[in-house]
What does this fold into?
Amino acid sequence: MQIIVNISLKHGVLDPQGRAIGRSLTDLGFDEVSDVRVGKRILLEIDESDEARARQRVARMCETLLANTVIEDYEIEITEGESE
Amino acid sequence: MSLSGLRVAVIVFPGSNCDRDMMVAIEQLAGRRPSLVWHKETTLDPVDLAIIPGGFSYGDYLRCGALAARAPIMESVLDHAARGGAVMGICNGFQILLETGLLPGVLVENAGLKYVCRNTSVEVVEGTASPFTEGLSPGQRMIIPVAHNEGNYFASDDDLQRLEDNGQVAFRYTESDIIGPANPNGAARNIAGILSANGRVLGMMPHPERAMSPALGSVDGATMLNATLQALAA
It folds into this structure.
């Protein structure tokens, strides 16, 4: 089963990288951009057929290692092994 | 106990690069060479001080310090801390201690988006109780260099207030005529180093092991480390 973990900075946490990208976009004429936040995307291939169990295990992985929950939120997406 | 009776261990991860500097610094002060302990070890011999040195453990992959914090040796370091053992994390070592949860908060990318490598003026905060600060005077200023890309200390307002109220802020960046602007990285409340609630665990961004001799521009790191060793030997 293929699982995508999306990790993003919590609301209120300063994102200097996002801000720099935002400034560059504005400089390039994309004036409509009012905010940029940069996150991380982790693709996991796991040997598990039960979706609920997989979700639970990956949540454990996020809490233990993949995300720092002081500043980051995570979202788990199951893609059923389809290639994107 | 004399200083040479102190048992000090320096933990070494793949990518640590201040481990030997720290070993030499401690040996210079204590007259006894600390042991270097590889991250794959699962036991830590009894020590008076465990030091987690600076560097780029595991290439800073995922997040600075994230992988090192879960390395085999860290369980023994956490046990040591749980028994009230002294632990000092410098720079990447500070990042690692935050990732273990021994200290609250997190170090995020410098506000200026640039790696900062320069001297800082660091002030000893009043009202702490720890072996790392008891031999220093409140308000004492030390010139100690920083070298990092993620040294911007961040914690929730509640955590910051708790740190202040409990005397857990050990060191703050200060303005200095010699050094210039105080805060090199945007750290909340100019925080350069913090303590655990029991004062036995210190994490700090500045590198005392790089301020050990007039030839290096400052001996204030030696002052700080010596005070720590004296307190632990007392």
